[in-house]
Amino acid sequence: MSRRPLAYTALFITAFGWSLSPIFIRFLSSPYDPYSQAFIRYLSAAVTLLIVSGIAYRPGLWKAFWNPATLGLAIVNTVMQTAWTVGIYSTTATVAQFVVKLQVPLIILFSFFLFREERGVIRRPFFLFGTLLGFAGVGGVLVKEPGASLLPSLSVGTLLIMFVALTWAIYAVWGKHAVADLHPVPMFTLIAVYTTIGFGAMSFFVGDPHTLAAAGTRTTIIALLSGTLPIAIAHCAFHFAQKQLGAAFCNSVIMLNPLLTHAIALLLWHNEKMNWIQWLGAALLLTGTYMVIRAERAETRNGMALVHDQS
Question: How far apart, in Å, do the first and last CA atoms of the chain sit?
Fold first, then answer.
């Protein structure tokens, strides 16, 4: 039986869950410091996944435990999620979602250096032009006051989000190949556990762990819920979808989640509105990202055709 229909469903869940992630982070930025917020959200995800994996995926959990890729991915994820959370504290959810889409050309560039079979794509004009459009689009998204200056506003928050795009590319490429040998649910279960330990240490040493107790029952429940769909469910669904459908198609769907984030965020905060230069930059960014993905698809089809001819 084909798993593709289930993979499409998983991809939709991923896109929706990750659309909510920056909204939850910004909403919880008042009661928590960034490190304590990340800790309680990942703690919720880790506990949920440990229960699920302990019941349904016990052999896979043991296999993932002995695979060093899970610890490596957890370290990258901890660094990435730290920059993501701190970055959103000083920018808007919408801008963060658009800027982080620089991950798509970076994913392909990392694949170019690491995997010989994926090196043809960088020579395609669609990839080169699409990458240039993407970077130009990010510049447009970062123009806050077009009447005063057309120069991008590079705050600490936006620089951190750019760093997230870099670390996400490493995480996605590494995860794509790790999941070939591991089940996505127990694999991310251990990633979540290790990441929670990392955030717990950061909350204690550089954060304010007292906010965990002072936040109140309602805020705590929201924080715990924010660790289920955007983290526990969405990450497992992403690794499963990427394994079944490929990285290019998954990224082509997920690149639209900034639009959903923007629609939801506008209902909560007025400063989520973007000016016309930012919307133009967003259009260039999404167009460039789509061109990059089309170039990767074309190269993949070309490679498959060559293999078929040789056989």
Answer: 27
Tokens 């982080």 locate to 100
Burial 214-252 (b: 16+ CB within 10 A, else e): ebeeebbebbbebbbbbbbbbbbbbbbbbbbbbbbbbbb
What is the sign, positive or negative, of the torsion defined by CA atoms of 260, 265, 267, 271?
Answer: negative
Q: Residue 95 has which token pair?
A: 């801008």
Locus of tokens 């989000």: 161
| CB burial of residue 10 (10 Å; 0-12, 13-18, 19+) | buried
What is the rounded CA–CA span in Å between residue 222 and residue 204?
22
Name the DSSP letter for residue 100.
G
Pair of tokens at residue 285: 């960014």
Blockwise average pLDDT, block size 10, the chain, 311 residues: 77 88 92 96 97 94 94 96 92 75 70 60 70 68 56 67 86 85 94 97 94 93 94 91 74 70 76 73 75 69 54 51
Tokens of 48: 């949920």
The DSSP call for residue 67 is -
Angle between helical axes of 247-254 and 103-114 (0-180°, round to 10) = 170
Q: Which residue has the tokens 């924080």?
A: 223
Biggest CA pair distance of the chain = 66
pTM of this structure: 0.81
